[in-house]
Amino acid sequence: MGWEHEAETVWRAQELYCVDRLSFEAVASETGVAASTLKRWSEKYGWQSKREEIAKAEADIRADKVLARAKTLKALLDKPKAEMAFAVSSLETLAMKEAEVARQNAARLVTEQAPALSIQTPGEAIAALRKAIEGKLTLLLTRPENVDLKAVQEVQKCLALVEQLEVAQEATQPEGKATEGGLSADMTETIRRAMSGEL
Fold this sequence. Notes:
- The protein has helices at 7-19, 24-31, 35-45, 47-78, 82-113, 122-142, 149-172, 185-195.
- The longest helix has 32 residues, at 47-78.
- The chain has eight helices and no strands.
- The relative contact order is 0.06.
- It has two domains: 7-111, no CATH class; 118-195.
- The model has no long low-confidence stretch (mean pLDDT 77).
- The protein has 199 residues and is mainly alpha-helical.
- It is flat, with a radius of gyration of 24 Å.
């Protein structure tokens, strides 16, 4: 007799695989169930077809939303009416909220998948901060739906901060020598604020 799993575990695994579209390995990591068991469940419960059906449905919903936004906006432009303006405003607000949630989820995944850093010097901290900002910029460029004025401004501020830190770092160290020792309290706080989006 094999190891028995509770029904909730099976359905949670199905949701992670079909809805969140994680790999078997990622689902195994999340649920503690072996990938080979997940593959058996996938065959038994038809996960692959469910996954494809859900992906198509989500794509259709996104397309329908875009078309509805375009149609509603066109109707407002053709015949301005208060109720149509309210509908356009509501659709645009919903779209902005969805984009923000998607951006936060993507950022959370990047953070969770990032390896732990060992930062010992100011130079290492600045390099890590630059790499994090470049990662965020790459995420924005590869997912245009996440680009908005706020996101662009955040990246711009962070890049300017990194440049200031690099200039200050170069000015405080002798030529050709790396700075030894830990981070100053000011630099630690500045980096913390930049990484949390407070700057």
